[in-house]
Amino acid sequence: MDAPHDVVIIGSGFGGIGMAARLLRAGVRDVVVLEKADGLGGTWRDNTYPGAACDIPSHLYSFSFEPKVDWSRRFPRQQEILDYLWHVARKYDVLPLIRFGAEVTEARFDEEAGLWRVSTSGGDRLAARVLISACGQLNRPALPDIEGRDSFAGPSFHSARWDHGVDLSGKRVAVIGTGASAIQIVPELATTAERLVVFQRSAPYVIGKPDRPYRAWEKTLLAAVPGLYALSRARIYALYEARALAFIKYPALMRLLTWQFRRILRAQVPDPGLRARLVPDYPMGCKRILLSDDYYPALTRPNVDLVTDPITRITPSGVEAGGRVHEVDVIVYATGFRGADFVGPMKIVGRGGLTLDEAWRDGARAHLGIAVSGFPNLFLLYGPYTNLGHNSIIYMLESQFRYVLGCVRALRQTGLAWIDVRPEAQDAFDRRMRERMRATVWEAGCASWYMTADGKVVNNWPGFTFAYRRATRRPDPRHFRAGRARPIRPAAAGRAADL
């Protein structure tokens, strides 16, 4: 086993890379990042399907401490985002800290030593004074429980595990699902597949995506004029933040977006029968609102069929729905992720042998979405109640970075071995979230990936993002209990002020 490290981070997506960069800037040098895959990037490494892109503008979907003025387009695509993350990891010296192929299987808190004992699938064992989970919410693909799924004779794969060895040109392809990934995949496959069958369980709300490449003069201007990029970022933030009113306070405001949806649907789908099947049966915003200018036109192509009958089973030759077997050569599952499994399938064991699965038996809970009572010195990034429906998750992550750095500073300055959020503080936060969630559109009567199996929304933040930043400005000592043992090693001289 290695000597105890100051901080071990699990995951190397936006959360893990950004957290490591901030720790290094603050003078915390003994940091290890454990990554189960052979490359960094998290969801932007995994999702390489045709058309993969972000639905948040590029100027806002980036770290405030590392602006990128030369984004190629308004809404970044997968490869450019992944390239940006590699750039950040290199520039801030994070890359040498990453241990690839190191999937964490268990992390157990040693109360006597004040350390986390971490085990990986490769047999490595590490000790950490602080453990940070940066696994995210969209890293574990969800495959549907459909009879006969394993009987299909042709290639089949999840959208987040795209098989690029399968040539889809001239093939009959089924896409199961109509969520955020599917509306990007379908237009791409519609132009290459001989026949494309889209299986829709629930129609999504799709509105326009004002995407286009940035012109050369625009990028030159952004680089040359001080403050122009920051102004663009602030403008986009304000426009998107205003949408929170419709999600969290006044769901009736969704009528404006509903009008936009209906206008686009009428303009892009002339067939009234097809158009009727594309109208959702739930309030707008209850599920994720999707952005696309080419999804509806793709569904009107002569080689594309939309099937809304429930899938009965999968056969060796295709997909059965509505009493008919749709014979296909390839099946693509665009069926989303296990969003409520924030740290699965790792086993996390806290004080007194309590596992995180036991603590979260009735749903995930964490103070400010970051600290879990009974699990000292464990901090979650992109944890419960921190997902958004209206703005950039990078803004939320940067708020969490500051809070975690404040906790590390407290450990260092006080000589404490561990801090553990008090159960009453966590309970009070959870009650506030539950009370505020009732007024949101997410509890307007639909089932979504935001929900647990028993219908509780535990993923989303029911407020403004600037309110979350204010709440996480600094850790409140009154919210924590503490234990003494060995302190975190002092930071490098002259760097503590960054914390």
TrEMBL record:
GO MF terms held by the record: monooxygenase activity
Q: Does the keyword Oxidoreductase apply?
A: yes
Keyword annotations of the record:
Monooxygenase, Oxidoreductase
* Gene3D superfamilies hit by this protein: FAD/NAD(P)-binding domain
Respond yes or no to whether keyword Oxidoreductase is given for this record.
yes
Q: Name one Pfam family in it.
A: Pyr_redox_3
Q: Which top-rank group of organisms is this from? A: Bacteria
Give the protein name, as stated in the record. Answer: Flavin-binding monooxygenase
Say which species the protein is native to: Actinomadura rubrobrunea
Q: What is the lineage of its organism?
A: Bacteria, Bacillati, Actinomycetota, Actinomycetes, Streptosporangiales
